[in-house]
Amino acid sequence: MSRLRVLCVLVLAFSASPAWAWWDAGHKIIAAIAFRQLSAEQQQATFELLKAHPRWQPDFAEWMPEPLAHGDIGEQAEWSFMQAAVWPDIVRDFEGDDKTTYHHATWHYVNIPLFLSDGDRMALSGKLTVNVSTQPPPEPIEAMNIIQATQVARTLIADPATPPETKAVMLTWLLHLVGDSHQPMHSTACFSQRLFPEGCRGGNSIKTKQRENLHALWDSLLGERLGYRQARNEALKLMSDAELKAAGERAVKSLDPVQWIRESRETAEAVALGPEVLSPLRAADRAGEKIPTIALTDEYLSHAGQVAKRRAVESGYRLGAVLKEIVATGE
Prior knowledge:
- The chain has 331 residues and is mainly α.
- The protein contains 16 helices and two strands.
- The longest helix has 29 residues, at 298-326.
């Protein structure tokens, strides 16, 4: 009954939360790719660290499918790795003190401004209050952006003085945020004086015919919900593609989250918020019309799908490389 209850909560959460980055499927695929970059000792060390999570029992142990819970330890570790990667989205639907403690909305993104016009740039520059800092605070704070949160998580996990339960929580955030950093819509927001004075919320305010909004569309490009073996098989499929594998191997040359966000910002401007999206928005803005619902072409969707796969592989390889550096194996 406990597993049935939490499954119902998860299904409702995914149907009601279009702002999540890379839905369940994307984060699990990225985690599976990263898991395969680690040695058996590193995989086990990460698994043991996750078991120190203060919510290990209700959010991990009770969710693990029965066949895995009594099966191969390696599969248990990989399943837990995937579960950890989606956990920072699951906590969005917590209530009370647990939500206050574990949910941190701004950690998932950074809204580097993209102005609809030069006039908007001149009018709004210097007046926006968005946090685009790349400098991490000395300890976690609620208002961190994704760059800061990623850096803080890496530091705390690597520090021998950090309590195990804190390391475990920050590990779930690291597994999640490396994935989020490679989703283009988590790097930028459109601003204009009339249509988006407070920003487009990473595309959540841009309606599309294919999905509720542009952010949700990009979230779904890697799929919506996948079981453990489905996600693992999709990861293996992506890694078997020679071009994608080469992209992943190149990606590990840069383990700086500032660079990851810079790439996502460039991809957002060139692809996600390319001419098919910005042109009708700019036309509506000039005409004094409301935000249009945009019908994206098959060409846009096909290109976006390929970009999403490349970003997922790059993310997985980078996540694996980061974990190799900061997770102690006891060797």
